[in-house]
Amino acid sequence: MSSAFFALQHILPQHALSRFAGSLAASETPWLRDRLIRRFVAAYGVDLSEAARGIGEFASFNDFFTRELKPGARPLADSATFILSPADGAVSQLGPISDGRIIQAKGRDYSVAEILGCSAAEAARFEGGRFMTIYLSPKDYHRVHMPAAGTLQATSYIPGDLYSVNVATAAGVDRLFARNERLSCRFDGPDGHFASVMVGAMIVAGIDTVWPNTFHTHASAPVHEDFTSKAHSFAAGDEMGRFYLGSTVVLLFEPGRVEWLDGLKPGDPLRMGQAIAQRLSA
């Protein structure tokens, strides 16, 4: 993809476009809502057979986009043995965390501290650990679930750019995931300290969590929240958040806790709940 495409994204009013898309997606006007949904389903090949509701039963395009699935549509792997995929999508990158850096694409990386929006001391806890980046395509189920059991410790909302996220932009835009708007969520559990980062993108109208929060997407200032006294605990596979359009989840684990399954590589498709790693603490 040409550098002109990246330059165009840089000069576009990314947040204004995303807010406009968000207003359309939130509309409950029947003719607009149903037209958006039908055109989206046709354009991206969305499989509505596994959705709990059909066209005509959604309050808005957002309601459709964050649709729940029929019971049993995503069976969970054995969480006593495995780490679970938090979302439908495809592996973008995976590997070790070295020198405080995470690989984005060949020749490009970014720091743990900047994507998490945390201190150098907290980022250092992940040194020598493992990361995985999962890209969600438009047709995918867009709720994000827990890869392992854990109790929420802290979140950081970090405002930023809204570049589109795909293989081309990952290869062409420096520090893409650490530049885009994102919400990092840090947990403690049987698999140690781990993080799940929800990264926004162009036309992503919002990020939300299942617990009460005080951040607002497309805001201008970071929001850091401490949850250590609020006891939000989750089992592996529990829903933790959702995207209103877009994008990417980045997982980080401390060293000695998990090992990605042999043969798993960039480009491999994932389904929420499938095994992606062996638990070394199991």
Summary of the model, kept short:
The chain has eight helices and 17 strands. It is an alpha+beta fold and 282 residues long. It folds into two domains: 3-65, no CATH class; 82-279.
Assign a percent range to the helix content: 10-25%
What is the ordering of alpha helices and beta strands?
HHHHEEEEHHEEEHHEEEEEEEEEE
Shape: globular
**Structural domains: how many:** 2
Summing up helix and strand content along with how strands pair, one would put the structural category as alpha+beta
pLDDT average, as an integer? 87
Active site: 88, 145, 247
Catalytic activity: a 1,2-diacyl-sn-glycero-3-phospho-L-serine + H(+) = a 1,2-diacyl-sn-glycero-3-phosphoethanolamine + CO2
Modified residues (Pyruvic acid (Ser)): 247
Subunit structure: Heterodimer of a large membrane-associated beta subunit and a small pyruvoyl-containing alpha subunit.
